[in-house]
Amino acid sequence: MKRSRPPSRTRSRSRSRSLNVRALLALAVLAASVAIALTMPVRLGLDLRGGTQIVLETQSTETTKADREATDRTVEVLRGRIDALGVAEPTIVRSGENRVVVELPGVQDPKKAADVLGRTAQLTVHSVLGATETPPGETGKEGETGKEGEDGRAAKDGERVLPDESGQSLRLKDATLTGQDVKGADARFDQQNGAGWTVTVDFKDAGSDRWAKVTGEAACHPAGDPQRRVAIVLDNKIISSPQVDPSVSCGGGITGGSTQITGSFDAAEARDLALLIKGGALPVPVETIEQRTIGATLGDEAISAGAWAAVIGTALTALFIIFVYRLMGALATVALLCYGLISYAALAAVGATLTLPGLAGFVLAIGMAVDANVLVFERAREEQAARTRPSTRSALTAGFRSAFSAIADSNITTLIAAALLFFLASGPVKGFGVTLGIGVLASMVSALVITRVLAEFAASRPAVFRRPGITGISTTGPVRDALLRRNPFLMSRPRRWLAASLIVMVVAGSGILVRGLNFGIEFTGGRLIEYSTADQVDPDRARDALADAGFPRAVVQSSGDGDLTVRTEELTDAEAATVTKAVSELGGETEKLRDELIGPSLGEELRRDALIALGLALAAQLAYLAVRFRMLFGTAAVSALAHDVVILVGVFAWLGKPIDGVFLAALLTVIGYSVNDSVVLFDRVRELMGKERKTPFGRLTNDAILQTLPRTVNTGMGAVLILASLAVLADDSLTDFALALLIGVGVGTYSSVFTASPLAIELHDRDAGSRSARRKGGKGRGAAKPGKTGKQVPASRTERQEVL
């Protein structure tokens, strides 16, 4: 007869096996991160290292003039091409009427980038009228002519003569399809048919019909006849002219709305061709005027100050967590360092570009990653205080299990926003989506895998078992103790909190109407002046001189061989003379090489795409919260988010601070922080609703606030310590960034408790009143019912009086 194992021994072996699996996973992730970090450096942005500057000039054609409007459209097409090239955080501005200045950070092959940007990418599809012996550019027997120069001009009206891939001249009918009919293009390797790398082009609905028509007409000619071919032309060059397959019927054509361009492409050529076709044609041709290397927009002192502020802020946050949670806090600090390594490696692996605001946001993310650890430790404290767990390790296990839903829901809502920003937005907003998504995934690995391995291993040591006080979770902590003693009923009058929130929002938001928004040069454009000086001028000294002259926001870069570029907001002639005087005092004899008005780097289309992506992200978050929780929770969370955004923008309006790319990054960070706070609170409300079904909703929400407040305070302190360091120690370029986030963290913490919660209570009471009215035959929400004293009171107030 077999002797069964004791249940305790079975559970112990199961725990050990789980711990070993997590430890192996953590080691694998860290080993991969170390390997990537050592072999793949992160690309630094224009503000930290500089990069390559390419100046393009738009050229007029017979049909389109290269004016400001055409150049602005060219800027948007070029932005799409740069995104497809994988270059993050570029600067693209219109300069003057017909020039485009493109600045690319960390490009390994500037010549290739210039070639891709400079191609017009005018795609057309033509029926072939036949072969001709007349080479392009010569006159035929019947007065036919080929193209003049490079434009492929017609032999007759509406026709042109171009050489095919083999050099044979073909007479082509006027274009049946253009790039406007293209929906998308992808480079693929056709291994099955042995065609090698090909480009598959998908047409829109109308383009699909035209493609069927042109191939149906070609199919009416016998095999081998040149008229059975269809010519695909890119920038007046036939890149493919395939015969229509014999299986295609005359007049039927090829349906399905797609075609495949074949040729002797390698992988890089196929991808470049696909991105050109997908990105669309330039409205006018462009010519590369110059290409040069440019220096960083920030000086060494600014970069050094930002780095020191980041180090000090991170150290203060680590000390705070260790002070509050002792041994567990020390282990969480180790896990957070691992989080930094994983995030850095992920940024390097995806080829992201790191700018100074991105670096500050990366450091802030370390402070925000504290949140998941704090959630676990606070739940473990609750389990330990309830005396339901016999040991520190079992309390930790229960803490991880209880906190998982809050961690998962808050991170999934953020990942939804990051994904939509990445797929729908462009430029710096798209880059922010990449950084945000990497930070969220890395924080989950750090908290749920690495911290858990370290914490459970430490808690299982005999020395720790005998001294539970060193773990930091054996007591509930001073914040929770004070709340338990007083047990305040904060939500007794939720409408007062809503009124206070509304007043603050109106006062702050009125600044937008009264003072207006001070948009930075990225949104408004400005002036670009380039100088050549007798003595080479250090950009740091030039920045200081211009700040003393009244231009603290001027962007100064070294350019080419010792030249200096100054980019500012719009200047009067007198102000421009002041800038020139400040430069000449440093560099001696000064020659002005260029003085042009420049357009915004965050153009109208980019702003529109960002707003659409942000709106869809909020809608998706609302839908997720409605599914995971209830619609009223989602509505309350998104309303609190709108409240935070209005207050932050309004405060910056009252202060006259610039609304620029740095502020945009801060605003997006605040949005993520605000939603996380509300999700954590409502997750606890949902949990309490399952346990205490008879307790009024107002009391449940109040209990959830008191239970999650220690987590809110500790997480907020972790973020504030880093932000305060940035605000005090960093350069002016990061001061506004830190100020925006400090305001956002404060307002977000307040709104999750005193805006989202009261609003959820009011929505719940209104919904409950409506259901009650329907049950009683249509009486309104204000229908009276007897309370404890026998008096008639509104239904929503009765609930609250019953718990006093």
TrEMBL record:
Region span, Disordered: 130-169, 766-804
Location relative to the cell: Cell membrane
Keyword Cell membrane part of the UniProt annotation: yes
Occurrences of domain Protein translocase subunit SecDF P1 (ranges): 72-128
Keyword Electron transport among record annotations: no
Domain SecDF P1 head subdomain: 162-284
GO cellular component terms attached to this protein's record: plasma membrane
Residues annotated as transmembrane: 305-325, 332-352, 358-377, 398-425, 431-455, 497-517, 610-627, 632-655, 661-682, 713-731, 737-761
InterPro entries noted in UniProt: SecD, SecD/SecF_arch_bac, SecD/SecF_bac, SecD/SecF_CS, SecD_1st, SecD_SecF_C, SecD_SecF_C_bact, SecDF_P1_head
Bilayer topology term: Multi-pass membrane protein
Bias (Basic and acidic residues): 139-163
One GO molecular-function entry: protein-transporting ATPase activity
Single biological process term from Gene Ontology: protein transport by the Sec complex
Alphabetical UniProt keywords: Cell membrane, Membrane, Protein transport, Translocation, Transmembrane, Transmembrane helix, Transport
Domain Protein export membrane protein SecD/SecF C-terminal: 286-455, 579-765
Gene3D superfamilies in alphabetical order: 3.30.1360.200, 3.30.70.3400, Multidrug efflux transporter AcrB transmembrane domain
Function: Part of the Sec protein translocase complex. Interacts with the SecYEG preprotein conducting channel. SecDF uses the proton motive force (PMF) to complete protein translocation after the ATP-dependent function of SecA.
NCBIfam families: 2A0604s01 (TIGR00916), PRK13024.1-3 (NF009583), secD (TIGR01129), transloc_SecF (TIGR00966)
Family indicated by similarity: Belongs to the SecD/SecF family. SecF subfamily. Belongs to the SecD/SecF family. SecD subfamily.
Assembly description: Forms a complex with SecF. Part of the essential Sec protein translocation apparatus which comprises SecA, SecYEG and auxiliary proteins SecDF. Other proteins may also be involved.
Protein name: Multifunctional fusion protein
Species name: Streptomyces coelicoflavus
